[in-house]
Amino acid sequence: MSAASRAPLRSNRTNRTADRTADARVRVRSRAARAAVGAAAVALLVSACSSGGTSGGGGQTGFITGSDGIATAKKGERADAPELSGKTVDGGQVDVADYRGKVVVLNVWGSWCPPCRAEAKNFEKVYQDVKDQGVQFVGINTRDTSTGPARAFEKDYGVTYPSLYDPAGRLMLRFEKGTLNPQAVPSTLVIDREGKVAARTLQALSEEKLRKMLAPYLQPEK
Fold first, then answer.
1. Where would you tag: which of 38, 44, 153, 222 has the fewest CB atoms within 10 A of its CB?
2. Please, which pLDDT band fits residue 35 given cuts at 50, 70 and 90?
3. Confidence of residue 49 (pLDDT cuts 50, 70, 90)
């Protein structure tokens, strides 16, 4: 075989080797990308549903977090609650603004969240005790891909107050950053009678802790 005839063969082998190298690099990059996405998803899941949590406070934020994990803002330093309205888990309609003049306890939950299941009966019990004192409980159900599991959750735990259905978490994003905004599942906020966010916690609540969080707002504030 002449040198001229061997040259195309060497060229073909070189091209195949380059192609295999390029394919290998693509596979490595693809695996790395999948790993990064997986890690981000795990981190999101961990932050999305935990039995405890703390929040920032003080300084430029205008609120203070106690050792019990409950953050509060003084009257006159509270941010307005955003518009929170839409369809409920059971197919109705709720607009939190309609409860102006009442204290609103806002609980962010998901049927898939173990701490949410742990606190559900506590919320219903306290709600039944205080609903005649100018207090309204409202849930925000999030990250349930359909209302079926959410309705089953409400039935299993005897939840009678309404919950807005917010599978993509858009309602949570309406709260201004740097305020007492919900940042985890579960989160609980107290909205005062003037429609301002007075307190927040990023943890599951016992009946005792929920009563403690709500108590300062049951009587007229000075």
1. 222
2. very low
3. confident
Residue whose C-alpha is closest to residue 192's, from 73, 91, 17, 21: 73
Give the tokens for residue 166.
């917010």
Q: How would you label 107-140 residue by residue, b for 16+ Cβ within 10 Å and e otherwise?
A: bbbbbbbebbbebbebbbebbeebeeeebbbbbb
Q: What is the pLDDT of residues 132-142, one digit of tens each?
A: 999 999 999 99
Q: Model pTM?
A: 0.76
User: Distance of alpha carbon 10 from its chain centroid, rounded?
Assistant: 60
Vertex 179, ends 101 and 222: CA angle to 5°?
A: 45
Q: In DSSP terms, which residues pair with 94 in a beta bridge?
A: 86
Q: Would you tell me how many other CB atoms lie within 10 Å of the CB of residue 60?
A: 6
Any idea which residue has 């307005």 for tokens? 80
Q: Which helix (H) or strand (E) holds 191?
A: strand 187-191
How far apart are the two ends of the chain, measured CA to CA in Å?
A: 102
Q: Which of 136, 72, 142 is nearest to 106 (CA)?
A: 136
> How high does pLDDT run on average in the chain?
83
